[in-house]
Amino acid sequence: MEVATSEELEAADCPIKEQDNSAPTQKYSDGGYGWVVLASCFITTGLTSSFVRSFGIFFLDIQKYFETLAFKVSWINAITVAVFHLSSLLASALHLKLSHRVIAMIGGILSMLGLLLGSFAFSLNWMYFTTGFLLGLGNGFAWISSVSLINQYFTDRRPLANALSSAGECVFLFILTPFHQWLIDSMSWQQALMIISGIHLNICVCGALMRPYHLQKKCQNSASSFAATFRKDSCCKSLEHEKISASFIDLTLLKQPKFICMIFFGVFSVLGLFIPLIYLVPHAQDIGIEDLKAALLMSCWSVADLIGRLGCGWFANLRLLKSIRLAVIMTTALSVILLLFPLAKNYTSLVIFSCVCGFFVGTTMALLVTLITDVLGANKLSSALGLIMFFRTIGCLIGPPLAGLLVDWTGVYSTTFFLAGGGMLIASCFLIPIDYYLTCGQNSIQDTGREMETFISQGQSQEEAEKEKLGSDRTEDSASELTNAVSE
């Protein structure tokens, strides 16, 4: 029976185990079980966004059922998206306490209940609470848990992993939009909601597969036992500090100008990312397009969205251009296309504009998480994402109802695209100061590095000069001693 040594007992008190250099270490980064988590995140993002992004299919049916204005119906989706963003802040603060797995499974149950209870359609206020509040809360819990876990499992391939996981929105939107329209045509929109609620239970299955990521750090063995113990204690304290700080929202981010710009970008970008998805199908139906063909526009949008996400994720992974500058280009292009969208008056032009808009929306969505990570760092991603999602609630609550008011005032749905394009154009303007802050910070770091190199080189040159002087003095002393010896 082996007796544990004192060093082994000390190692047991610390969560970090000392290992020899030859001992194998478990590595999750950019592979392994991370691909399973990526697949789960792919399905989760697809299910949480499929109904919200295809809500336009239900829009006119709900409006006719309750015989009300578009402004009041638009509040259903506005509340869903707003609570989705708002709940992300709560999930960011709780995901370490309850784990990503538990939060995601709770989100799946809430999403199912929101759709199931909303199918009874007692009143608009009932729809606001069920299909609005409960669905948004469940979607936010499931989405933030899966996205945060993806960025822990992937490091080098993080841009590509984020693009692949977010591509679930496009794939599920392409498949489920015609399916949702078929359900409405075959039965009623209330019965369709019941079936969709059962599909959303698969979020719980995906959440069960989200195994927590345990970061392993090593403290190198040292010849001195005192040095080894000191390093071991330092690692334990640093991990404990990281765990405590990660369990709460980091409000110090609000003191950074670049993060304030990210908040304004998030608030205004909501207008360009969600309003077209809500009013695209009603706009097509309003100008005389058949219901099924109008629903297929969302499928065309989703295919182009998928191409944009994967293509932009692959290009961003090459690091040929800064993610912040790539985001400026894509958001500006999207704003121009949205402002020109009302020019589409027939089905062919609607398909073309839908594909182009879908492509640029995909590039923007693919860059979102990578952009936050590059600007603020991976260690602050959870807090930064939660705070940004919290402030985006403002745009979610204002955007769709304001677009509904424009529809009620003008009588046409095309005016909503002007609001979406203008909001996205304003959002792109807030990315330019972020690029300025990052460039200045990088230049200051480079200048500091040059100063350090200059200081070190000067110190080395002075040291060499002193050595040469000392050597010459010793040579002169030896020569004088030799001369004295010869003379004697």
Describe the protein's architecture and organization.
The chain is mostly helical. Helix content is 81%, strand content 0%. The protein has 16 helices and no strands. Helix 3 (56-66) crosses helix 10 (257-286), helix 4 (70-118) crosses helix 8 and helix 10 packs parallel to helix 14 (381-410). The longest helix has 57 residues, at 431-487. It is elongated.
Q: List unreliable stretches of 5+ residues.
A: 1-28, 216-247
Overall strand count: 0
Cα separation of the termini: 78 Å
Structural class of the secondary elements?
Answer: mainly alpha
Q: Helicity range of the residues?
A: over 70%
Q: Please report the number of helical segments.
A: 16
Any idea what the radius of gyration is? Answer: 29 Å
What's the shape?
Answer: elongated
Mean pLDDT: 78
Strand residues, percent: under 5%
Strand count, sense and barrel status of the largest sheet are: none
Please write the string of helix (H) and strand (E) elements.
HHHHHHHHHHHHHHHH
Name some characteristics of this structure.
single chain, 488 residues, mainly alpha, elongated, disordered N terminus
Short description:
The protein has 16 helices and no strands. The protein is an all-alpha fold and 488 residues long. Helix 2 (34-53) packs across helix 6 (158-186), helix 3 packs across helix 10 and helix 6 (158-186) runs antiparallel to helix 11.
Explain the layout of strands and helices:
Elements: H1 6-13, H2 34-53, H3 56-66, H4 70-118, H5 124-153, H6 158-186, H7 189-199, H8 202-208, H9 225-246, H10 257-286, H11 291-317, H12 323-340, H13 347-376, H14 381-410, H15 415-429, H16 431-487
Helix pairs in contact: 2-5, 2-6, 2-8, 3-10, 4-5, 4-7, 4-8, 4-14, 6-7, 6-11, 6-13, 10-11, 10-13, 10-14, 10-15, 10-16, 11-13, 12-13, 12-15, 12-16, 14-15
